[in-house]
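Could someone model zinc ion with this protein?
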Amino acid sequence: MNRINFARISGVVVDVCKGHGTFLDPGELHAIVQFIHGGGLERARSRQLEDLREQEKRALEAERRLARDRVRKDSNQSLSIHHSWPFLIGHE
Ligand SMILES: [Zn+2]
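Reply:
Sure, complex below.
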């Protein structure tokens, strides 16, 4: 049995069982109906959209950071090649 905040933001915490369904305590059905009548599902949907956009933004930032680190590593490599020049020249 999992305790789930109905529609994530309703504040009505229901018990959900994979095999048997959703269980409501007295008063919870009424609270859910009020939540829905008050536009709760629309609010939940736009909140979820916001969360998805935020996740997308974070993923893009992480990707950009990875790309930047890769560039930094590359420039470190060219730096070490540069430092090995005098050695190479000395053996010419
Ligand atoms: Zn069950």
